[in-house]
Amino acid sequence: SQVRIPRQNMLARWAVVTPTGEFQSQTSEPMAYATLVSERIALVGEVFSTLSQAVTIGVRHGISRIQGPLGEKLMDYSSHQVRLMPMLAFAHVFRLFHSDITHGWDMETQKMQAGQLKPAEFVAQLTEMHALMSTCKTWFTWDCTEYLETVRRCL
Question: What angle is formed at CA 115 by the lines to CA 111 and CA 118, rounded to 5 degrees?
Answer without folding.
Answer: 85
